[in-house]
Amino acid sequence: MSYRIVGDSCSDPTEAMKQDPHFRFVPLTLIVGDTHVTDDETFDQKAFLKLVAESPEGPKTACPSPEQYLREFECDADMVFAVTLSSKLSGSYQSAVIAKQMYEEHHGEDKKIFIVDALSAGCGQTNICLRLQELCEEGKSFEEIVETITEYRDGMKTLFVLESLDALKKNGRLTGLASVIVTVLNIKLVMAGIGGVIHKLGQERGIDRALKKMVSIAVNEGTDFEKKRLCITNVNCRERAEKVRDMLTFQVKFRDAVIVDAAGVSTVYASDGGIIVTF
């Protein structure tokens, strides 16, 4: 069966995904003061980071409309899978669900559509998208893919360390996090997305020590690494991402390791220098 995989623009794509017609990406809108930026292939990360640094207001995002998703669902593919950032962090998932309902009201059930709430963001969505493509290329049935990708999503771990938590704090994304953020002492938090919600796992002074702690947590808490793909999103810090990859792959063997550059939404919330890890 033919297929299409639709991610919102928090799905940080690999270069191969950008060129593959099976993948489509629905943009969120990035807002800095009075400036609105569409998070699509025209996104300029360096210019955006400069805009954020010069603005007295923190950046925000606006989720796609159902109509944007609907346009991507109206295609020739027999199966469509949409992968959205965590429903606990954005309205993107709900927009995709509404778009599915709109499609079925107009066209009936002439194609199979499944919406995946990634319960993650950035490379977590990338990881799910890549696994979806593998299952589609293996010729699995729609029902098998839905069951397998749901199990894959539920077993995936998301860890991250950020240089700055300002964007997350200003946008209310840290409501469940204890207020132990001490920027004056250069304290960096090691955090995880658990069930789509941000939790603190630890803290260290300085980014390098925090990254080492994150790696230690990943190695101690992870299982069956040889069956999993390691995906890392970096925000303007490729060398840092490579260092984290090397620290992890020195200790455990993954089936694959992928580093992706943050698109716009990940750049907003992970901020300059941020690292997200999923497996």
From TrEMBL:
InterPro entries: DegV, DegV_C, DegV_domain_contain. Keywords: Lipid-binding. It comes from the Bacteria. Signal peptide: none annotated. One of its GO terms (molecular function) is lipid binding. This is EDD domain protein, DegV family. It comes from [Clostridium] aminophilum.
